[in-house]
Amino acid sequence: MAEAALTGRTDVYDLAIIGGGINGCGIARDAAGRGLKVFLCERGDLGGATSSASTKLLHGGLRYLEHYEFRLVREALEEREVLWGIAPHIVRPLRFVLPHVPQMRPRWMLRAGLFLYDHLGGRKALPGTSTVDFASSPIGEGLKPGLSVGFEYSDCWVEDNRLVVLNARDAERKGAQIVTRSACTAVRSDAHGWTLTVEGEGGVRREIRAPVLVNAAGPWAGDVVRHLAGRSPKGRTRMVQGSHIVVRKLYQHDRCFIFQNGDGRIVFTIPYEQDFTLIGTTDRDYTGDLAQVRASEEEVSYLCRAASGYFARPVSEREVVWHYSGVRPLYDDGAGAAQAATRDYVLELDAAGGAPMLSIFGGKITTYRRLAEAVLDRIAPLYAPPQRAQITARRGWTGRAALPGGDFPMQGFDALRRELSEDYPFLAPREAERLARYYGTEAAAILGKASKPSDLGRHFGAGLTEAEIEHMRRNEWATTSEDILWRRSKLGLHLTREQVRDMDRYMGGLSQVA
């Protein structure tokens, strides 16, 4: 897709967006659906930085109540069921268990916080809070004997990179041009707006004209303002590193634990990819190279210790099968500790010289859709009255329209999975579930008229076939094995080293042909 777009010509758009993370792609979808001609460039892979390094949760942020961020929590709580409704394949309900530890937050405080959590965001389909007696419930198996009671509440899980890609796909369907692996290398402004120079991997350049520029570059947003646009950002960005580790499954039930720690942080343990447990996240200020973000030994040890504080069998660094890390570009509100810094977003509009640029600082994946609406609200007055009226009239459409593959009832995933298994009986049960989870109603288009496994082409392990790879390449901007194995999916966890090398060779051969 991207390569064909890099023609060296100059094109005119209504809106240009720098950055293909969840915010950039969410804005592109919303704007294109309101009739704007949109161009988005991303220098790497879609969601290749912060947006694919999340804890994979759509949650209100229970701990943010302690910092009195009620507006942010309410907005996030409202968004859980909205996103579940438009993407019921990649979003699913998840029950969280918060053990009570007498030495930390008192029981009444936890119960009061969860009462607010249940009622602040207009919860409808998600079940409310209940109490768990660990001695009589299988949920308590494996926990340390001193833990006797906990509170169980609801949030949601999301396939984060797929959320980014599906927003980009829907934006493209509505006319947006999404160009990946193409860096914006220069911007110029005049009284009529912006000219962007965009350079692809092959060195082919093109120029883009647009009256309005949105800077959704995440951790690099400040660099875009200062170095590309030559302006001075009013706000400051605080880079906070969040790292996660993956170990073999620690328990058999499907609950997520939320553990309190003595330093005031919380850590989740989440059932992950059927055979594993995800543990995260850390919160620490980051000052290193944004292109070289990795989980440090200190962070890995911290997460192992945090989990070991609650499980009877300690978790050791030797058990870590994978780890990942990202930097969250939070708005710097002057908080002392990284975990206390606001997760709210700030939109900074600079209209100097008649060339408006809106930069995004902060935010969280749960509220990306509301952020996109806020961006369109801010830039709508910059357009001529007829276009402005059109932008305003379609506000809120993204919360009602399904993302690709999500056009089935919010609570209809099990029925969809069963239908896929019946239509393609050669699929193993867990493979049918994975395909339904990743692609929803589009899974059948990938499988086509296949009646046996060989009809799907070459198999690379863990159920990955040529047919699925071709779908990711043709429709999801995937160009490397890393895109496929670690972002569009997490199948890299299930493949042997030789199978991964085989994938590298296969994708390398396809890129040479292209």
From TrEMBL:
<keyword id="KW-0274">FAD</keyword>
<dbReference type="InterPro" id="IPR038299">
    <property type="entry name" value="DAO_C_sf"/>
</dbReference>
<dbReference type="InterPro" id="IPR000447">
    <property type="entry name" value="G3P_DH_FAD-dep"/>
</dbReference>
<keyword id="KW-0560">Oxidoreductase</keyword>
<dbReference type="InterPro" id="IPR006076">
    <property type="entry name" value="FAD-dep_OxRdtase"/>
</dbReference>
<protein>
    <recommendedName>
        <fullName>Glycerol-3-phosphate dehydrogenase</fullName>
        <ecNumber>1.1.5.3</ecNumber>
    </recommendedName>
</protein>
<dbReference type="GO" id="GO:0004368">
    <property type="term" value="F:glycerol-3-phosphate dehydrogenase (quinone) activity"/>
</dbReference>
<feature type="domain" description="Alpha-glycerophosphate oxidase C-terminal">
    <location>
        <begin position="398"/>
        <end position="494"/>
    </location>
</feature>
<dbReference type="InterPro" id="IPR031656">
    <property type="entry name" value="DAO_C"/>
</dbReference>
<keyword id="KW-0285">Flavoprotein</keyword>
<dbReference type="Pfam" id="PF16901">
    <property type="entry name" value="DAO_C"/>
</dbReference>
<dbReference type="InterPro" id="IPR036188">
    <property type="entry name" value="FAD/NAD-bd_sf"/>
</dbReference>
<dbReference type="Pfam" id="PF01266">
    <property type="entry name" value="DAO"/>
</dbReference>
<comment type="similarity">
    <text>Belongs to the FAD-dependent glycerol-3-phosphate dehydrogenase family.</text>
</comment>
<feature type="domain" description="FAD dependent oxidoreductase">
    <location>
        <begin position="14"/>
        <end position="369"/>
    </location>
</feature>
